[in-house]
Design the sequence.
């Protein structure tokens, strides 16, 4: 699943292409329509496909913003502001092309679910192989309450103190530290990949309870998480499985990973082990991480 660095890369690539452009028409896939008819609401949330296509008609994309793992399209129509919120899910990807034939990977061409035709002639295409992503049209952030619960951006000044405060709360103190740092209410944008890497850099076992870590360890861990996220942003993110930046672009952070998905420890050479924490497979070195 794309994490903060991957989503940041998508936003940075899309900004110069779509900001200031106006949406002429929207075409949703048959899959979106049939899923809504069956009550499953694939991709498009809180509106019917017909409503969605009508609502976004003639909207101007004023600004793109990343918040945690979400992309916010700030829209305007007739002086009124709106937001299109996108979560990439497991395999969502954006393409900015003149024709869908320009999308080189067939697996994405076969799973196009939304085509935004811009008045400039470009097509802004959203493809999603597994269909766990979402497009949600709202008037303001408060219209989708889960967005209000997101932790501050990890690079914000207040983020470390917020992280430490959350870690001390009873609901987080007795949980495994790996699960806690993957919780978007504690720190924004850190998922399985970068939680695994950060804990390995700190030589902390992912199953240790949060309360078992000292204040100094938690403070250092937060900084390491920020460093790992920034390194990945600078590397274009990790292209693993179905993640792509726009137009099929790939990152290089996957070549820098030391523990995620590894069979041997990069530090001591021991065989790694894994356990399920927070519903995700957590790889670690039983010799180095305590």
Sequence:
């Amino acid at each position: 699943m794309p994490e903060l660095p991957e989503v940041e890369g998508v936003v940075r690539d899309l900004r110069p292409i779509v900001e200031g452009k106006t949406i002429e028409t929207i075409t949703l896939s048959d899959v979106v329509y049939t899923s809504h008819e069956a009550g499953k609401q694939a991709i498009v949330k809180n509106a019917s496909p017909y409503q969605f296509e009508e609502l976004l008609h003639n909207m101007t994309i004023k600004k793109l913003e990343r918040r945690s793992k979400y992309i916010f399209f700030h829209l305007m129509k007739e002086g009124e502001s709106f937001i299109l919120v996108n979560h990439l899910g497991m395999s969502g990807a954006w393409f900015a092309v003149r024709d869908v034939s320009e999308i080189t990977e067939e697996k994405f061409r076969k799973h196009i679910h939304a085509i935004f035709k811009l008045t400039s002639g470009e097509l802004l295409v959203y493809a999603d192989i597994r269909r766990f992503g979402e497009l949600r049209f709202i008037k303001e952030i408060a219209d989708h309450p889960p967005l209000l619960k997101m932790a501050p951006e990890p690079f914000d000044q207040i983020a470390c103190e917020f992280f430490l405060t959350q870690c001390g709360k009873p609901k987080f103190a007795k949980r495994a530290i790996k699960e806690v740092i993957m919780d978007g209410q504690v720190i924004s944008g850190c998922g399985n990949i970068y939680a695994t890497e950060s804990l390995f850099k700190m030589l902390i076992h992912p199953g240790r309870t949060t309360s078992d870590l000292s204040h100094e360890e938690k403070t250092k861990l937060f900084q390491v998480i920020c460093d790992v996220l920034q390194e990945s942003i600078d590397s274009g993110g990790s292209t693993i499985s179905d993640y792509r930046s726009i137009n099929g672009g790939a990152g290089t952070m996957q070549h820098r990973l030391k523990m995620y998905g590894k069979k041997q420890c990069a530090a001591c050479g021991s065989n790694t082990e894994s356990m399920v924490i927070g519903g995700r497979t957590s790889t670690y070195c039983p010799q180095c991480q305590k």
